[in-house]
Structure prediction request, 237 residues.
Amino acid sequence: MVGTSTGREVELLLDRVAESIGRRRPRVLQVGARVSVADRNERNWRTLVGKRFGSRARFVGIDLVAGDNVDRTLDICSPPRMLKASLGGEAFDLVICCHVLEHTQSPVRAARNIESLLRPGGLAYVATPWSQAFHAAPDDYWRFSVRGLGLMFRRLEILSAFYSGGDVGLDVAYRVERDGRPDLEARGGAVEQGLFQIVLDHEDNRAILARQATERLPVSRTYLPTLFVNVVGRRRP
Prediction:
């Protein structure tokens, strides 16, 4: 287990982008770019990319709904020809897709499109919930594990994988590694299984429910925090 933070991992991601592009102008796509009140704990990727690469960076934000930070109203699950017509034929050096896949009706199609939008050697940063309350925006369909994302993004070499939380103001993350690389084998599951789950006895369970501001149904004595899985992958040639 390696302690880290999402902020630190984002810095490492941008370092990788800088290394991969050399002196070229980076082309960056953010999927699900619209700013909303619920995103108060989310990073402003356009600002981060601008600070790192300056005015030479070419940033495009897409979303299902028009709004702040959205350059194109576009569905990442659209047919590839529609994406190409809207975004142009030039591939991207970085595609950012945070907290979007759980809201898509076809996450596998979205994954294929993200891969196809990357240049060979281009990077993708994908963040999805493993444990989070239902949040319909416009709807909520899926939850993903690190290994599940690895199966979906078959054209990506997974360079980094880490877990992060969802509390405002708390930037703590953890990587599970073996020999300095993400441990994506089944043996790593034995480590991960007991990391975040809390199992309470009956009386402790009732005490927690009694302290809630609104009524909760006692359907379980097992609790999981809000937990996100994050992967950084590089498109294979």
The first strand starts at residue 2 and ends at 4. The chain has one domain: 2-179+225-235.
